[in-house]
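User: Could you go from structure to sequence for me? I need the amino acid at each position, not a summary. Structure tokens:
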């Protein structure tokens, strides 16, 4: 896990594991939507999720192009964009994939304003 808003494409023509910016035709729209979410999240907006084992990982403005972060061949986000014209971003909301129940109220507080801002953009 991490704390970042990721946008298409997640796959790249070269299929390198990481570091390839895979720009979509709607790249500016996706960046706008990802920033709308990230800029309201207290951790995401810093671009420094500080996840255990990944402390050096950073994301400018709390967002990343999926393939630049890591290549995902055949992902649903890209499939829906290409074949159904659905504009989706992927939200990584926690360093922990399954946070304990006791952490959920804090996660809600971290994400509430981001969710509202994102819904307003839609």
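Assistant: Here is the amino acid at each position, in order:
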């Amino acid at each position: 896990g991490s704390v970042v808003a990721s946008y298409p494409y997640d796959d790249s023509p070269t299929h390198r594991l990481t570091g390839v910016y895979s720009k979509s035709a709607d790249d500016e729209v996706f960046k706008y939507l990802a920033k709308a979410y990230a800029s309201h999240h207290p951790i995401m907006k810093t671009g420094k999720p500080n996840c255990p084992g990944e402390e050096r990982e950073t994301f400018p403005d709390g967002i990343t192009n999926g393939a630049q972060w890591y290549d995902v061949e055949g992902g649903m986000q890209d499939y829906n964009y290409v074949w159904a014209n659905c504009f989706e971003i992927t939200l990584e909301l926690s360093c922990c994939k399954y946070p304990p129940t006791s952490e959920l109220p804090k996660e809600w507080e971290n994400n509430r304003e981001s969710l509202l801002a994102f819904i307003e953009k839609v």
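One structural detail worth keeping in mind: The chain has a mean pLDDT of 95.
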